[in-house]
Design a protein that fits this description.
By secondary structure, the chain is an alpha+beta fold. Helix content is 43%, strand content 12%. Helix 9 runs antiparallel to helix 10 and helix 11 crosses helix 17.
Length: 730
């Protein structure tokens, strides 16, 4: 006689093995093995680079910095939620940042084990990724077993959730992969509900509160518990059950649990409400909201299904594509089956709560394929309620929705397993569900190439003295923050998730100095307290004239280790000299003269993107390069206009140099575009020429309170033509 697959029959052959599988030790061991295989190249090598985009790979550097800073702050007895090491000398409040301070013990242990190796935060980073997926899988499985689902159903649904596309896309974000707090909180709440006299309510209070030190999902957990409880209260039997739970728990236990929750939460809360940040623009919540179609269509990088669904995926162009929001067909198919087959109110309430969170995923307006329908969605209300008003990624609500669908899907898989057992016996039932588990794991596995190792740059001195200015200047500089974990000095910027008005103003001042450039650049930095400059690739540095810098310049662009770690990230500083054929050069998108050339190939540095009729200079110095076959006195005709602001900026001075020789100085005070003639003397002309415009009065519209534009605007250039001497108009 076959046994029911829900029974645990310890007297069966292999009963001890099954008991081991159901123990925490066995679950952690198996979950660890599975997670190591599934995430191998995210873990090995321990110093592998998870973002191979050089200095532009900000998030990887930011996460390593987070681990280093928290370890350094707590080891020194300092508050980890404030730092003066970033955005020197302003500093930053980090409670609105993706800090994940709770991982401190792992980072500290890594530092001890690796004996202070400078890369210990990088090693800790990889270890934490492994541990997060291990716990995500293990806690999900144990919760489903606690809810009386079969082992195979629990394993399959847990695997589908733990390795869903969302978590794999965000593997490098340590604040987004601690999803294990969701099933772990659920586990203690379920156990507390079944045994109100136990300490599980205390454990649930502690775990849900401590989650704020790891992830923003803590807020989602509180919201989910509230919605789920409200739904349970809709059923008379469940209302009686909840009232009985409260009665049996006793007021002392409930008050103690609330006290634990508030005490654990208090340090974070006190720091959080002291910080003032700039809320994201509404367009960001639209960009990072889920597309309704993306729930069901895998993304282009989904190795198993991408080719089949490529035409449909190509149509998902509004909001977040399927690679992040796709639920996986195991959860979709068995979620529907579980909802249709189960009579448990737990499954129904889980499904309805999941629907609430999926609706929130969609953001403020409904997006379907390539269309933003403009239909308002409930998330629009949350954007006006703190702290949700600081969020910019509605798609992250998917974590709770998918967790709840995992429960519904486990019910569907268990129902199918029972049906197969009744008709074909336990062997067939277990075999077929094992196939479902294998297909789920195979579909979730995302193959990635082995990551090349990060090493300490050879040119970075063992000691760097005093505050550092990182070049190129970026408001969010994850690579600069990564280097700080090696040199330990304050830096000019950094990378935090939410900027403050003070940080934004500080950056604008630095940008003005940076964009003015010139031989005075380093002198201005020294006056602000900076004592060295660290240079990496990604931007032309010629206008800064660092060869004339009075501060120590640590140039990593030629560093062999830097080149090896980030291949292809070095820009050629040398100017190009395209041959000029004396045609009109048009700087706008739409040339009035059809015979005109576009300006792009002649521009070296200091120019913004093309606009319909012109192009702005966006630095204190802008240059044009060109080559001519014959050197003769010529005239430069330039149609341009200055950037002015009534009552705030009345003029723009323009110094024009040809091959470092000053040829004219202009003062422009008429906002209307005009044509200016400038003599190009024979003494300055060469076959290869650099024409330089120095703009000492350039300012940004934001600095003048005109608009959010932070470009350092000087002149807008419409057309340029050089007329040889024999063709000059008299």
């Amino acid at each position: 006689m076959n046994r029911n697959p829900n029974q645990n029959g310890s007297r069966q052959p292999g009963g001890r093995v099954l008991r081991l599988v159901d123990s925490w030790y066995g679950v952690l061991l198996l979950a660890g093995l599975v997670s190591f295989v599934m995430m191998y190249h995210h873990i090995v090598p321990l110093n592998g680079i998870l973002f191979t985009d050089g200095p532009a790979g900000n998030d990887w550097g930011q996460m390593v910095w987070n681990l280093w800073f928290v370890n350094d702050a707590l080891s020194g007895g300092h508050n980890p939620y404030f730092t003066n090491l970033l955005y020197y000398p302003v500093g930053a409040n980090l409670t609105h940042h993706t800090l994940a301070a709770g991982f401190f013990p792992i980072t500290l242990l890594a530092k001890l084990v690796f004996r202070g190796d400078p890369l210990y935060p990088v090693y800790a980073y990889h270890i934490i990724i492994f541990l997060c997926f291990l716990l995500l899988l293990a806690c999900s499985y144990v919760l489903l077993r606690e809810l009386s689902f079969t082992r195979l159903a629990s394993a399959t649904a847990a695997c589908a959730y733990a390795f869903c596309d969302y978590y794999q896309v965000h593997t490098l974000h340590l604040n987004l992969i601690p999803g294990f707090f969701i099933p772990l909180t659920g586990l203690f709440l379920v156990r507390a509900y079944r045994d109100p006299q136990s300490r599980n309510l205390h454990y649930a209070a502690f775990v849900s509160a401590v989650a704020v030190y790891f992830t923003e999902y803590a807020l989602f957990i509180y919201l989910a518990v509230l919605v789920f409880a409200i739904l349970m209260l809709c059923f008379q039997e469940e209302r009686r059950g909840l009232m009985e739970f409260v009665r049996r728990s006793g007021s002392r236990r409930v008050v103690a649990s609330m006290a634990i929750f508030l005490l654990v939460l208090a340090p974070f809360g006190l720091c959080f409400f002291r910080g003032h940040v700039i809320n994201p623009a509404p367009i960001e919540t639209s960009i990072f909201s889920a597309n309704l179609a993306s729930f069901f269509i895998p993304g282009a990088e989904h190795w198993l299904l991408a080719k089949v669904f490529a035409p449909l995926n190509a149509r998902v162009t509004s909001g977040v594509p399927g690679l992040e929001a796709f639920l996986g067909y195991t959860l979709i198919v068995f979620g529907v089956l579980g909802l249709l087959s189960s009579k448990r109110r737990l499954v129904l309430c889980a499904a309805v709560t999941a629907l609430v969170f999926y609706v929130l995923c969609l953001g403020s307006t409904l997006k379907v394929f390539g269309t933003d329908t403009g239909i308002p969605m409930p998330y629009a209300i949350l954007t006006h309620i703190p702290p949700f008003d600081m969020g910019r990624t509605p798609v992250r609500f998917l974590t709770i929705g998918t967790f709840l669908v995992m429960i519904v899907a486990a019910s569907g898989i268990a129902w199918l397993q029972r049906l197969l057992w009744k008709r074909y016996g336990n062997g067939w039932a277990m075999g077929l569900i094992s196939v479902v588990l294998a297909v789920t794991a195979a579909g979730a596995y995302t193959p990635i190439p082995r990551r090349h190792a990060f090493t300490v740059p050879d040119n970075l001195p063992a000691t760097v003295s005093g505050p550092v200015f990182n070049v190129p200047l970026r408001l969010k500089d994850g690579y600069g923050a990564l280097l700080q974990t090696l040199h330990h000095q304050p830096i000019s910027t950094g990378y935090i998730a939410r900027s403050s008005p003070e940080i934004r103003q500080h950056f604008l001042e630095l940008k003005r100095i940076h964009d003015q450039g010139g031989p005075e650049f380093c002198g201005r930095l020294a006056a602000m307290g900076f004592r060295s400059v660290i240079v990496t690739g990604g931007e032309l540095l010629a206008p800064l004239q660092l060869s004339k810098c009075t501060l120590p310049v640590i140039d990593l662009r030629a560093d062999e280790s830097w080149r090896r770690d980030f291949p292809g990230r070095i820009l050629d500083e040398a100017p190009k000299f395209p041959e000029y054929n004396y045609a009109t050069i048009d700087f706008g998108l739409a040339a009035a003269n059809q015979q005109a050339e576009t300006a792009d190939k002649y521009l070296w540095y200091g120019w913004s993107e093309r606009e319909p009729a012109f192009r702005w200079t966006d630095r204190g110095v802008a240059t044009i390069t060109f080559a001519i076959k014959e050197v003769s006195p010529s005239t430069l005709r330039l149609r341009m206009a200055p950037f002015l602001a009534e009552g705030k900026l009345a003029r723009q001075r323009v110094e024009v140099q040809l091959n470092d020789q000053l040829i004219t100085s202009l003062t422009l005070s008429d906002p209307v575009p005009r044509e200016y003639e400038i003599e190009l003397p024979l003494s300055a002309l060469r076959k290869e020429n650099v024409l330089t415009f120095t703009l000492p009065d350039a300012l940004s519209p934001q600095a003048l309170g005109l608009s959010p534009d932070i470009r350092l605007l000087g002149i807008s250039v419409y057309e340029l033509v050089i007329v040889p001497g024999q063709n000059r108009l008299r």
